[in-house]
Specification:
alpha/beta; Rossmann fold; 2 domains; six-stranded parallel sheet; three-stranded parallel sheet; 10 helices; 11 strands; about 40% helix; globular; binds NADP nicotinamide-adenine-dinucleotide phosphate
Length: about 290
Amino acid sequence: MYKIIDGKAISEQVKTEIAAEVKAMVAAGKRAPHLAVIIVGHDGGSETYVAHKVKSCEQVGFKSSKLAFEADITEDALLHEIDKLNKDPELDGFIVQLPIPKHISEQKVIEAIDFRKDVDGFHPVNVGRMSIGLPCYVSATPSGILELLKRYNIPTAGKNCVVIGRSNIVGKPVASLMMQKGYPGDATVTVCHSRSHNLKEICLAADIIIAALGKPEFLTADMVKEGATIIDVGTTRVPTSDTKSGYRLCGDVKFDEVAPKCAYITPVPGGVGPMTIVSLLKNTLLAAKGEIY
Ligand code: NAP
């Protein structure tokens, strides 16, 4: 019988642990960790994510600030705002919610953030430090995936781990982390993408599959070996008349047929998703404690 990796339950557990640390910090006379979130424009998805982030900060006792700018803000003006946050001594970390409007360079924005406050872990300094195994802010989704493997004591050393997807925010960093020395890591990692051949054969040899391609129900039972662990990162909005919002979140794994073959599997929703915000909170706590830089 397969086990569900309950990301919602684990995320609540981690939040409780963070809240206890914050309480102790404040009791010792320190100020609470402070996270700021910049949002540009009125993208519905982004507004929801930011609202969740602000609410999660409240839950664990962090101070949070939301800085909202209209979609027509100039690149220079946004970079100026980022610079102000870089210099604010009362702020431990901040993020710019992506995507941002097309007239602003995402890469310029990422690189304008002081890497010591880059709790999203997207700055090249953090990405580079992660890839050579130095302390850094690890980006939220990969960090959440590793935390799930750890909390469920899923063995990774010497295991064949197949990552489907090579994006900068999920595929590449999670592949890099899975091959680092130590636990969770020490895996033999294969990264697949849209140009990969023989995906089915590659997946059939995998002990762990991390599906992060954004193609609903892509991974089917005939691609999975008995006893594998499946991490489903996909969250595609699929239209439905069954929900008030008019859509449901669909993973990259055909859950009903794949789950019976697995040892462990993450559901969508309730698997990787809830861990992402928790990882951001963890990075902010590390920033407040000055434990990385
Ligand atoms: P992305 O930037 O679109 O990257 C998708 C990757 O999948 C690319 O590397 C692409 O290959 C590869 N790919 C596409 N079709 C493929 C196929 N048929 N076979 C093999 N590989 C294929 O996506 P992302 O930002 O990494 O996100 C992936 C999914 O995770 C999305 O559903 C996203 O919503 C979700 N997500 C969830 C969370 C969370 O917190 N739960 C966080 C982030 C992302 P090429 O490089 O060759 O194009």
